[in-house]
Amino acid sequence: MGEEDYYLELCERPVQFEKANPVNCVFFDEANKQVFAVRSGGATGVVVKGPEDRSPISFRMEDKGEVKCIKFSLENKILAVQRTSKTVDFSNFIPDSSQLEYTQECKTKNANILGFCWTSSTEIVFITDQGIEFYQVSPEKRSLKLLKSQNINVNWYMYCPESTVILLSTTVLGNVLQPFHFRAGTMSKLPKFEIELPAAPKSTKVNLSERDIAMATIYAQLYVLFLRHHSRTSNSTGAEVVLYHLPREGACKKMHILKLNRTGKFALNVVDNLVVVHHQDTETSVIFDIKLRGESDGTVTFHHPVLPARSIQPYQIPVAGPAPVTSQSPVPCKLYSSSWIVFQPDIIISASQGYLWNLQVKLQPIVNLLPDKGRLMDFLLQRKECKMVILSVCSQMLTESDRATLPVIATVFDKLNHEYKKYLDAEQSYTMAVETGQSRSSPLLKRPVRTQAVVDQSDMYTHVLSVFTEKKEMPHKFVISVLMEYIRSLNQFQIAVQHYLHELVIKTLVQHNLFYMLHQFLQYHVLSDSKPLACLLLSLESFYPPAHQLSLDMLKRLSTANDEIVEVLLSKHQVLAALRFIRGIGGHDNISARKFLDAAKQTEDKMLFYTIFRFFEQRNQRLRGNPSFTPGLLSLELGADTMNPLSHFIGQDREKLREEVRKTCRPASPLVRRPPCRWTGQG
């Protein structure tokens, strides 16, 4: 198989540490994601490495016996080491602080410490076989203070650092789980719940094993995952993973069942909100997405693998050593090895090889493995690094070889715009809250995060639609249908369509001489009115003369483009039409006389010039009681006589022209006497 067939891979830069051997013991801290390599009990050195650590931490400890557990507090300020079943030793790693160790013994008599968990930089929990003890560490005083304790018989425990929840296994069968939540010096006891064990003969004793339980955060919710090796239903013999939702408040509920349809040895990871189930016997893995639609019986949703089972992509281990040796070919890594240890959410450790990897999901291969475009889009929209893959899917379904049907394309557009609309609404709600001052009264209010699932109009225009319209081999009807389908989807979700999408439609129509369709789109308002669109229509007048009137009609409908309408009419030498429009909207008292007289002058129509001049004379008379123009108001370019610009055209024949006007016109200018007309765009 090629790389395009693998949808899981190990990270390129793993954490490398000294292999486990009789002298070197390896420990993993699930909270800090650090690997501890402890040589000779720490006497010959301790090396701490993690994926986020820029440089390893190295130090030595006095060998006081076998190390059972070793962990740093959050921020690596205090080191805790358990060497016996009764005590935990502490050392400060704070600058200018005492390096002397101090010890804390568990408070419960006859109890044995099973382990410990740091819940903050100065708070730690001891888990014993008889309960838990919650302490606050004071590094300055080199002492611990017991904050709270709880007595309960404990078989084993599990810790989820992301949610600071500790899960305790209780009762003889171990299937009653008691969760505790820790936060800011407080310990809260959550409702206990019971894990349903698989049916077994009475002679067989079935206990809940720690290996079959995992805790992980999936889609911001805490789940307990139970690997049930035998289904409780008689018609299914395969294993399954049961997901119990563990809320902060309320009882734990069984929500999902993942059907594996096989038996054997399994391991679980959670990567990018996907449950990954590894199967050692076949050396393959499958992924489940609980957000995708499954089969429900009313209380529990059953899920099947999203994709066919595939192996993790083969990994090559570089050969370490001197330069001549390292030139050798890398050694293939043994995948699904029995020495692999899996930690949540996405950690795989090979102690025998000395590597810690983060498991990763590759999205691009999934595009070809999931043919249902609607389901594929549902899957991709939930992933972190999804935008470019989504855009590539949109481009792919618009190619000649993989062309999708219009209903499928419409489904994809609707799913994208649904996410887009959710983000726009959240952004609008946040903005309103800030403007009204609600953000101060509600400190939990946060600006919505623009995830990669938000594919906006500019993304679609730049990466998909503009490229798509340039393909010569595509039938123009299909091209226009796709563009209109995207605009239809935006309108359906009440998202304002950006003008560049309308421009793309118009350019495509003009390119194929589909002017009748353009006229219909504009007439029935399929394309939304905007100033940029009106300007584009004006530029098309030479190809399609009615575009001029369509542009004017659009500007009139906008009600905010009166100045633009006047400029368009004046540029076409329709001075009277411009003046009638201004009168129709009641703005004739504020317009510039110079602009209209200059436009009339450029027409070289003496009668028109005189009509415009008389209009402004009468306006002056009405507003100021004097028909004369204010000195300096009119440009000298209109004539030497700034008080009477008629001199530019008629000079000594002024009276003759006025006589001609009286013969051909009514006593007053028709323009002045005419009542305001409704706007039609006619000159």
Summarize the structure.
This protein is α+β, with helices and mostly antiparallel strands and 683 residues long. It is 30% helix and 24% strand. Helix 4 (387-396) runs parallel beside helix 7 (457-469) and helix 11 packs antiparallel against helix 12.
Give a description of the structure.
This protein is α+β, with helices and mostly antiparallel strands and 683 residues long. Helices cover 30% and strands 24% of the residues. The chain has a 6-stranded mixed sheet with strand order 20-21-22-23-28-27, with no helix packed on it. Strands 1, 2, 31, 32 and 33 form a 5-stranded antiparallel sheet that branches. Strand 7 and strand 8 form a beta hairpin. Helix 4 packs parallel to helix 7, helix 7 (457-469) packs parallel to helix 9 (499-511) and helix 11 runs antiparallel to helix 12. It is elongated and about 115 Å long. It starts with 7 loop residues before the first strand and ends in a 10-residue tail after the last helix. Residues 383-631 form the Mic1 domain. This is Regulator of MON1-CCZ1 complex isoform X2. Residues 26-144 form the Regulator of MON1-CCZ1 complex N-terminal domain.
